[in-house]
């Protein structure tokens, strides 16, 4: 079975370390990291992927911080949702902010879930299972 690739979009090295550790503890090993919004958009929407090959169309899941350099997380989310090839990729926001306006904007753009930092790997796996993105077995 092919591993499911996760794109973690996080600019803070300390948060990146904690989030990667939380993912790995849950058996989610195949993680690519983007450290700013521009890099995330390039990795997700890059021309290197044929639009006919849906299996290579991008990550299986995006874990997205909102406060990013170059392009903020809301704009990354808009870019994902505005592209036919990527609009159905599940996006989970991981943010230090729990401001109602940000949460509402993310919900309007179809996020699967909104976590506040620090990331709890067990809760993440629970959300993925509840959303039908993971079966009952280890990923």
Automatic annotation (TrEMBL):
Top-level lineage group: Bacteria
GO aspect biological process, one term: phosphorelay signal transduction system
SMART domains: REC
Keyword Phosphoprotein among record annotations: yes
Keyword terms of this UniProt record: Phosphoprotein
Chain positions found as 4-aspartylphosphate: 65
The keyword Chaperone belongs to this UniProt entry's keyword annotation: no
Gene3D superfamilies on file: 3.40.50.2300
Domain named Response regulatory: residues: 5-132
Protein's UniProt name: Chemotaxis protein CheY
A Pfam family hit: Response_reg
Organism: Geobacter pickeringii
TM segment ranges: none
